[in-house]
Design brief:
The protein is mainly α. The protein has three helices and no strands. It has helices spanning 2-33, 37-41, 51-54. It starts with a helix and ends with a helix. The mean pLDDT is 75.
Length: 55
C-alpha cells in the first residue's frame, strides 16, 4: 500500500508541475508576441526601475 500511495503522490506532483510549466510557457509566448522593448530591459522582470517612468 505504501509504494502505491507514494507513486500516486509523485504522479500528482509531476502533473501539477507540468501544468504550471505549460501555463508559464503560454504566458511567456503571449508576452513575447507583444512588442515591449522598454519592459524587457527594465521594470519588474529585470529588477531595475525604468528611467522613463521616473520622468
Amino acid at each position: 500500500m505504501l509504494p502505491v500511495a507514494r507513486l500516486i503522490i509523485v504522479f500528482v506532483m509531476l502533473g501539477s508541475f507540468a501544468l504550471v510549466f505549460a501555463e508559464l510557457v503560454r504566458q511567456s509566448e503571449e508576452m513575447s508576441a507583444r512588442p515591449i522593448p522598454t519592459a524587457s530591459r527594465c521594470g519588474d522582470a529585470a529588477g531595475m526601475p525604468c528611467p522613463q517612468r521616473a520622468l
